[in-house]
Design goal:
The structure is a single chain. It contains twelve helices and 14 strands. By secondary structure, it is of the alpha/beta class. It has two domains: 58 residues, Orthogonal Bundle (DNA polymerase, domain 1), CATH 1.10.150.530; 279 residues, Aldolase class I (TIM Barrel, Alpha-Beta Barrel). The strands form three sheets. A ten-stranded mixed beta sheet has the order 3-4-5-6-9-10-11-12-13-14, with helices on one face. A two-stranded parallel sheet has the order 1-2. Strands 7-8 form a two-stranded antiparallel sheet. Helix 5 links the parallel strand 9 and strand 10. Helix 4 packs across helix 5 and helix 6 runs parallel beside helix 9. The longest helix has 15 residues. Bound molecules: S-adenosyl-L-homocysteine (SAH). The site of S-adenosyl-L-homocysteine (SAH) has 17 residues, from strand 10 and strand 12. S-adenosyl-L-homocysteine binds next to strand 10 and strand 12.
């Protein structure tokens, strides 16, 4: 059985032509799937014989809501979806003034090992498929009844560790016959996998690249982010400069403020020095307290921001949403894993 929704319009058209169908059938099926059809019998403009044939060769993904939490503070919604194989993933819907934004996962778990992050504690289980990424946007829109206008790839997983799939997903979600979400409304966040950044630069997509910096010096960064031992921060800065030169697009740097670890003034000075020549934007994130982690939130966020600004950088402090519903960084999935004995999800 083949996952039909992971196919591009072209692949779908070819597959249907191979079944002796006219070319326009591909677009018909594509449109149904991207509207959220979950069964071939919903596709009423297809001949019955074709629907029956498709049922024998293809399946349609449709994640189930395993848990849904709505923040009473700000309307943020957190979904825990159960996939076909029993694995669970998280999606967060945030209601910003500039539009409804979904934060989606790219993998089940993560193998990057950042010391402060809940998503990576149990490692990576598997990559998501293009359809499983698309479904997070599609079914969040259908379930909530809210039109999604922005996507951030900042949920569980490292997008650059599953880049072929992510690129396929971008093609699908951006398609005019599908959800038609513009590249300029999409952000992709990486912990600093340099070959992925370079590949993205060559593609010249209009999306926004976010880099999880978290420390500008090798020593600190290697301590909190094992990826730095493979891709050193010096090379990462060089890749970011090249990315800007190639695409002309401003990079956003994520910086989770950790008490006594990465919140010193000299580190702000070093960030400014390394970003010279490129219009970087630093997004300071109040550290979310992860129970399993020894790190504590910094008390120097405002001072650090001022210091960055004194060098002419733009720095913002991220507003924290959904604080009452475990809305950040793998926390809901971890809770569900702990409670798996109740039989909610297998992962
Ligand atoms: N793997 C990608 C995307 C997922 S993480 C990446 O690393 O960019 C999304 C963001 O949340 C990253 O910047 C990550 O470093 C940050 N993050 C993880 N745990 C956090 C925590 N406890 N507090 C604040 N930010 C955290």
């Amino acid at each position: 059985m083949t996952d039909l929704k992971s196919m591009s319009l072209r692949e779908m058209t070819e597959a249907l032509e191979a079944l002796g169908q006219p070319a326009f059938r591909g677009k018909q099926v594509f449109t149904w799937l991207h509207k959220g059809a979950t069964s071939f019998d919903d596709m009423t403009n297809l001949p019955k014989a074709l629907r029956d044939k498709l049922k024998t060769e293809y399946y349609i993904t449709a994640p189930q809501v395993a848990r849904k939490q709505v923040s009473r503070q700000d309307g943020t919604v957190k979904y825990l979806w159960e996939l076909r194989d029993g694995n669970c993933i998280e999606t967060v819907l945030m209601r910003y003034h500039h539009g409804n934004t979904v934060c989606i996962s790219s993998q089940v778990g993560c193998r990057m090992g950042c010391a402060f992050c809940a998503s990576t504690i149990a490692g990576k289980v598997r990559d998501l498929t293009p359809s499983e990424m698309l479904d997070q946007v599609l079914f969040t829109q259908l379930d909530s009844g809210l039109e999604i206008s922005n996507i951030v790839l900042m949920g569980i997983g490292e997008p650059m560790d599953n880049l072929d799939t992510v690129l396929k997903f971008l093609e699908l979600v951006n398609h005019p016959d599908g959800m038609n979400i513009g590249m300029r409304h999409i952000s992709l966040s990486t912990c600093g996998v340099i070959p992925g950044i370079r590949r993205l630069a060559d593609l010249g997509l209009q999306l926004t690249l976010s880099v999880s910096l978290h420390a500008p010096d090798s020593e600190t960064r290697s301590r909190i982010m094992p990826v730095n031992r493979a891709y050193d921060v010096e090379d990462l800065f060089a890749a970011c400069h090249d990315y800007f030169k190639k695409t002309g697009r401003r990079i956003s740097f994520e910086y989770a403020m950790i008490d006594g670890v990465n919140d010193h003034d000299w580190q702000a000075d070093l960030i400014a020095k390394k970003l010279k020549g490129m219009p970087g934007h630093v997004n300071l994130i109040p550290l979310n307290d992860v129970v399993e982690s020894p790190f504590k939130p910094s008390k120097r966020i405002a001072a650090f921001q001022k210091r960055l600004e004194s060098h002419g950088l733009t720095a913002t402090v991220r507003r924290s949403l959904g604080g009452d519903i475990d809305a950040s960084c793998g926390q809901l999935r971890r809770k569900a894993m702990e409670e798996a004995r109740k039989g909610e999800c297998s992962q």
